[in-house]
User: What shape does this take?
Amino acid sequence: MRSENAVLDQIRDWADSWDNVRAVILTGSRADPVRQPDVLSDYDVQVFVRDTDRIARDDEWLRPFGTVMVRWPIRPRPTFSEDWITQLVLFDDGVRIDFQITAKRNRLTDEHDNGYKILADKDRLAESWGASTFSTDASKAPTAEAYQDRLNAFWWDIVYVAKGLWRGELNYARYVLDSTVRFETLQPLLQWYIGVNQGWDVQTGVRGRWLHRYLDVTSWNGYAATFADSLPENNWSALFATISLVRRTGKAIGESLGYEYPDQVDRKVTKFIEMIRRLPR
Assistant: This one.
């Protein structure tokens, strides 16, 4: 696999040699002074060009970087904004470069705000971009309404996990627990829990990828217990571990921010789930 210096030199040489490319900035973990990229970290680059059609037309522009192993999308196209063309590429030697390409001279993505490095700037575009504020991904304390909403959503959704397990519908139960509950209700609560304990400038990353760095040992062990294998009994244990974690962190957040934890809903739903588990089949 190529070294970081080798890859960045290739990007600079590519930009210098092609008149269509006017500026290139590096964003993501390799440009964030707080992050610690490793050998598998992507190279996130924003490319400013005169003509995006010359990018979409064929693959000639990719040849300087090596042979493509796999890409997404199959052909360069807008994925998150009509102003930007996306081409994410994994090359044969394991280097991955995520290209976001635009013909808008001063159009930046949010990633710019978490640090960037200028690799090429032929027209001095960067003079109008400003410095990164590192505020885009920072957590914010929830309002009382947001706090109640996420807890209410949890106690509503968790019942479906119990129903799925009782019916023997493992795939459905795991989808609700590992997708809906984990990322829509549990993750926000854990981020808020970290916020009230360590400050709101802490970033836990996409899908909570860095939760293990910031949760205390008890909370992390409690979170690890929410994962299960395919055995029904272990999935019931994961369900109740999730309930225990939400109860503990939810109450801690409420006490810190002066919000009321829904104890009555907790008791009723937990009792109902315990009843479902005991039902004969």
User: Anything to note?
Assistant: The chain has a mean pLDDT of 91. DSSP finds eight helices and six strands in the chain. The two ends are 55 Å apart (CA to CA). The first strand starts at residue 21 and ends at 27.
